[in-house]
Amino acid sequence: MKFFVISVCVLLFPFIANAESVWDKPKESLPVAMASPEIKVYRSATCKCCKGWIDHLKKHDFTVIDITVDDVSPMKHKLGVPMGTQSCHTAEIGGYTIEGHVPADDIKRLLKQRPKNIAGLSVPRMPVGTPGMEMGARKDPFNVISFDKEGKVDTYNEYWTY
User: Fold this and answer.
1) Span 99-114, pLDDT tens digits
2) What CATH number does the domain containing 144 carry?
3) Number of domains forming the structure of the chain
4) Rounded to an integer, what distance in angstroms lies between the CA atom of residue 132 and that of residue 5?
5) pLDDT in tens, 60-83
6) Cα 120-23-6 angle, rounded to 5 deg
7) Given Cys at both, which of 72, 75, 112, 122 links 85, Cβ 3.0 to 4.6 Å?
8) Which structural domain range is residue 52 located in?
9) Cα(160)–Cα(143) distance, rounded to whole angstroms?
């Protein structure tokens, strides 16, 4: 199985390397009904990557309420972010919790589909190349994780970027 995955990655690399980033699609490509959803972002005042993620959201036509706090941990606990899925900032939108550097298109899909079995989405930790964590050409593969009110997690989306 490992050989198969490596082979597929090697074969697809030239196509993936030249592809436009999935999360950098212009807001014009998104449905009109999804225009300007309001999102409350709780972050530390000193976090630069959080500001980068907020800029990403604004680029994709979100209305951002930027709330700086001394400690984001109580908000993570209040909103039910499971241990192991935490990152540097936490947000609320449309009754859902968003944790970390979740791409705007995944948030818009969540809001459009409105699944009842999902309490929120997370990109755990801070993978290089995610929205707000751009550091040159490097883009690590990462997963967007969904979680429910009991803390059960599942994969919501996968990004195989190199």
Assistant:
1) 999 999 999 999 999 9
2) 3.40.30
3) 1
4) 28
5) 999 999 999 999 999 999 999 999
6) 95
7) 122
8) 2-159
9) 9
